[in-house]
Amino acid sequence: MITHHPNDALLLDYASGAASEPMSLLIATHLALCPSCRRKVADYEAIGGAFVSNCGSEKISRELKSETLASLDDFLDVETCHDTSIGTRSDEPKAGIPQPLSDYCGEVDNKDVWQWAGFGIKKIPLLEIHDKFECYMLAIRGGKKVPSHDHGGSEWTLVLDGAFTDEAGHFSRGDMVEMREGEEHQPMADAGKDCICLVVAEAPVSLTGSVGRFLNPFIGN
Predict the structure, then answer these.
(1) Domain membership flag for residue 153
(2) Residue 52 lies in a domain
(3) Which of 17-21, 62-66, 208-212 comes out lowest in average pLDDT?
(4) E-assigned strand segments in 52-185
(5) Is residue 122 situated within a structural domain?
């Protein structure tokens, strides 16, 4: 049972189309697993649709209409090129990976797509061209404790498989947790199964403690 959800502001941004691509991917993946948040987003979309339908309309010039449609054509061309460059598209979801994310992450069962990150952690970078957020899949070996670290900005983690426990509680499939700038934690994956997550972060983490601070220069922080 999912007990940890994105806040209403994130759901509203997603419903209105205001969310960035990494955040939209994160929320869409959570919605694929969470019926209660799907209902909330549907309600937000219905309210937005009603608001638009009640707005008055004004005539626009033929020139403005042509320019707007031409701009949309250019936008759609860019989006199409971008989509095909960030992952393997497939009609069928990968095992255990919800469809919104499945389109982005390629063959997750292929060991070669995972990058070793040390401390029993593996990563698959996603949306690497995005300049505001880091977005990646993270696998923590079952029973392994991630080094204690803090955050240079907000970080959102969605559990896709397995589970982990940290100072904020226990998180399993479909649960989403937000850590804010300056907050410190040390997640530990449940024993017996790797914990696989989707992570969106505003800034890299920094390891804490005497050993962690010594290692930060070697991991790029």
Answers:
(1) yes
(2) no
(3) 208-212
(4) 115-118, 121-126, 134-140, 149-151, 155-161, 163-166, 169-172, 176-179, 184-185
(5) yes
* pLDDT at site 91: 37
In 3D space, the residue among 216, 48, 56, 57 whose CA is nearest the CA of residue 147 turns out to be: 216
**What is the Cα 38 distance to its own chain's centre?**
16
- The answer to pTM > 0.85 is no
Give Cα separations from 81 to 67, 84, 86, 159 (angstroms). Answer: 22, 6, 9, 29
Give phi and psi for 83, each to the nearest 5.
-60, -45
Here the tokens at position 221 are 């922080």
21 pLDDT higher than 70:
yes
Residue 211: per-residue pLDDT = 46
Q: Kindly state whether residue 30 falls inside one of the protein's structural domains.
A: no
Q: How many domains does the chain have?
A: 1
Q: Please state the length of the chain.
A: 221
Which tokens hold the place of 195?
Answer: 């914990």
Q: How far apart are CA 7 and CA 12, in angstroms?
A: 9
Q: Measure the CA–CA gap between 116 and 214, rounded to whole angstroms.
A: 20
- The predicted pLDDT at position 92 comes to 38
CATH number (domain holding residue 150): 2.60.120.10
Lowest mean pLDDT among 18-27, 67-76, 127-136, 185-194: 67-76
Q: Residues 6 or more apart from 152 whose CB is under 8 A from it?
A: 181, 202, 203, 204, 205, 206
CA angle 44, 175, 134 (to 5 degrees): 85
What residues make up the domain containing 128?
109-219
**Which pLDDT value is given to residue 99?**
85
